[in-house]
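Example for tutorial group B:
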């Protein structure tokens, strides 16, 4: 009996009305559709920021003019290889840039890239 009533409903689709007020409240991510390249670029940024260690690392670097990789170990509680892994991901996303001095890397924020993130999130 139940199966028969389900089959009848499936063969007679119902019309669904959409409340325009609900649709208009949900604005898109940007004012124009993203290209494939833009979407890939934004996904790389969000991927880099999706890890708590990298978010903390980015905040530590942003709090200073520049930070040595060696100074990130203690506050993050991570080994140097782990620090290197996370800084590489942030650098590939263009969020930080590094300069090798002696045996250590010194990291700085890329303000323009953080500006892009801010514009994306405020759209």
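The residue assignment follows.
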């Amino acid at each position: 009996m139940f199966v028969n009533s389900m089959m009848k409903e499936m063969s007679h689709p119902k019309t669904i009305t959409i409340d325009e007020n609900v649709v208009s409240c949900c604005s898109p991510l940007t004012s124009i559709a993203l290209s494939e390249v833009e979407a890939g670029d934004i996904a790389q940024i969000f991927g880099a920021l999706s890890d708590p260690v990298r978010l903390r690392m980015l905040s530590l670097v942003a709090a200073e003019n520049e930070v040595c990789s060696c100074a990130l170990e203690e506050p993050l509680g991570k080994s140097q290889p782990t620090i290197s892994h996370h800084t590489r991901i942030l650098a590939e996303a263009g969020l930080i840039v590094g300069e090798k001095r002696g045996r250590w890397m010194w990291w700085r924020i890329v303000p323009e890239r953080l500006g892009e993130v801010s514009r994306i999130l405020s759209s």
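The longest helix spans residues 36-49. Compare this with the pattern of hydrophobic and polar residues in the output above.
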